[in-house]
Amino acid sequence: MRTPAVTAVLFAGLALPFAWARAADWQLEPASSRLEFAATFEKTPAPGVFREFDVKLSLDPTKEDAGRLDVTINVASADMASADINKAIAGAEWFDFARFRQAEFHATEVRRVQPDAFVARGTLTLKGVKQPVEVPFSWSESGSTANMEGKFVVKRAAFGIGTGEWTATTTIGADVTVTFKVRLRKAA
Description:
With 188 residues, this protein is mainly beta. The chain has helices at residues 3-20, 83-89, and strands at 24-28, 34-41, 44-50, 53-59, 65-74, 78-79, 102-114, 117-126, 129-142, 145-155, 175-186. An 8-stranded antiparallel beta barrel has the order 1-4-5-7-8-9-10-11. A hairpin with a 2-residue loop joins strand 8 (117-126) and strand 9.
């Protein structure tokens, strides 16, 4: 009579490795990835890009509670396609590159909200300020590579971006839209 119980335990033990088989750690392919931001100047888009950033993702797309996301950004790599603007955003009123060279986003909660759509809930640290942020993204996987794309909005004032004469939102808008298209490869 113990045979069915023993058989059930054996099958459960054999199934466990297959349950973990879908979970994977992913690393950024920088040459195929882009991290952009867009503020507004007098209601006209003012786009920029962060040229140096890293993404590490642990994800099991078959689970509702799917994983962890860690992003680091070299803030000094911000480029708004103008030498004058790039010099200005390096200053203390904007990104303050001298004191805050890196921004980070860490999410220990990555939840599936649709079959190929997720939300990462975590903390964005920018210019020494930590704020909770939700980052929605789509996911498509093919073999050892995957693409993740998304867009979200942050309030620049919450992070002390644009202080002094730039605090008012009449010239520079309050919202900054962050857009990303990231290509990832399974970690070895």
